[in-house]
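To: structure desk
From: M.T.
Subject: fold request, one chain
Message: Could you run this one when you get a chance? Sequence is below, nothing fancy, just the single chain.
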Amino acid sequence: MTATLHPGYRLRLLAICLLAFGLATFRLDFQSLWYDEGVTATVAQQGIVELTRWTASDIQPPLYYYGVSAWGHLAGWSEWALRFPSAWFAALTAALLAALTLRLSRLPRAALLAALLAALHPLLVYYAQEARMYAQLTALGILAAYLLLRLADAPAPAWRDWVLFVAVATAAVYTHYFAVFLLVGLAGAFVTDLLLQVEKPRAQVRRKLWTLVGAGVLVLLLYTPWLGAIFSQLRSDRSYWEGALKLHEAAADVAIAFTSGETVFERVALWLLFGYAAVTLLAVMQLWRASRNGRRLLLYAGSWLATPILAVLLLALAIPKFNARYVMEALPALLVIWAAGLEGATRRQRGKETGESPSPSTLHGAQLGLQSSWLARIAPLLLLLGFFYGVAGWFFHPAFAKDQWRQLAEFLRPRLAEDEIVVLVSGHAWPVWAYYAADLPTLRLPELEILDVDAVLDFATTAPALQQAFAEETGRRGAWLVNWQDEVVDPNGIVPIQLELSGREKGQHAQFTGLTLRRFTGLRPYRFVAAPPIDVPTNIIFGDQVALRGYKVVNNGDLLLFWERLADDKAATPDLHVGLQSFTAEGAPLATLPGRRLAGYTYPFARWRLGEIVTAHIRASDWLNTAEPQPGRYRFRVSVYDGNDPTAKPWPTATGETQFDSGPVEVTID
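Reply: Done. Structure tokens follow.
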């Protein structure tokens, strides 16, 4: 059974699709590419063999890159061209969601509302302007759902639709691995729907079920060439820190992303969740109290919404790597619930006011049971106002800008002297850096193709590369340090320490969204060190687990503490923190620093290797308590405690002391 379309339906749908396309292309190249988009640009420009090889070692399958590669060879590799495929899929998403909603609800106004919600949703607009596969995946998921629903409604197996479904499902899993969870959710709803249709001949139901099984087997066979890449990645992927996923935080991230997107401040988005929850409850109540069509819609949309989210969250318990965009394929289901439920409610109210007798075969024939008609009518407006707020944040609020690689490259290019090079930390940012600044001499630290959280820089790994880059015969004496994700690969600040030991920071630095830029001059290769540069050795052991092996004051006044892990009890690894107080040589107090981890915050004691010397970098302005440190003689005192201990009781040293007092420390400011 199909809905009767009013004369202006197609024109209104076309207007909504044009709105979706207009928003998706509005200032499409205003933002810089960020790292993931730089990967797209780099991979898509490679040959088909190298492209396939690269994606097989990455965490995404190749279909999206094939499409961008084909498009790029026609349209070029500008930021606008790279992002255009996502914008096109965003407009397609609005049209597909209208068709799906119309088939499920049989309400043309609900279909138009679903398309409008898709056109304006902040998360969909955001990823419509990103050169990544999420817009494509969303459109393919909707198309797969539409085809499966047509097959459920068909009186007999429609082989052309089954072939199309297999093709779309295969394309989805070759676009993103997590598409399999969407397909499982849709298949579960399809099976349940058929089993509940008791009026249909059982032989027909069995044929459809076996056809679904055959389609699933065919998709699996078509995906077989890529299964090895999946298992290889599961074994070797080191792009995330080990640890326990906080399910409540991940669930909150999904709820915020599905309502406010990624361009509303969290404190505001959390408050808005109450309103979105009320609207969702209203829509679900309408659908549940509706005729069979409403409950059938809830079956498909609910399974579509819940299965990918639950599956990805469960997977993240074993592999604690999660982002709300990983489950973005489930978002259209929520839009269908909102559109069909709210339109059903307002349709019922209009029927009461005009005295119409609603048809029992459609959602608007349901018993709504609502006392206030204004709530049903104002809910869509509230949704749209919230979406406008989120979209405005994306287009106009600088807090939500992407990492500004383009702006940094434009700033740096005219300032880079002939005897200077760029030191890029982290080196795996090379794809996006090469997109904007491949012509600039660059040293990558570490030289990674894909992020590896275990590739933490130290003096031994940085010294050879720096000595070679600044060898006397090169004539290089200066460096611009570009930091991005340095908290992952250089959590203890080894590279800036090396540059400070070899030369001097010139004071010319700049800050860009997601990036920092610092300049160092007077660099000499023989000053780079391959071992911790301990000036004053110590052997102070705290709690039989960690030892302070020594310290050094750099010529800019920064204090370096050198720690070594002694115990290897992984089952009971404490979260060690250090307390530090500083004094003048005469004992007058200068500063009491808040407790902090022994080294970098993102390099906790649990990640240290046994016997590894780890450097803690404390800025002069912190421990000397002044923005302009002065040369002189100072003292400091350190204590160690477990950050998990609410009493923060200091650990004793081997001599029973609870702290270590340094002797007079000479500070020179050069």
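Reply (cont.): Confidence is low (pLDDT under 50) at residues 356-372. Let me know if you need anything else for the meeting.
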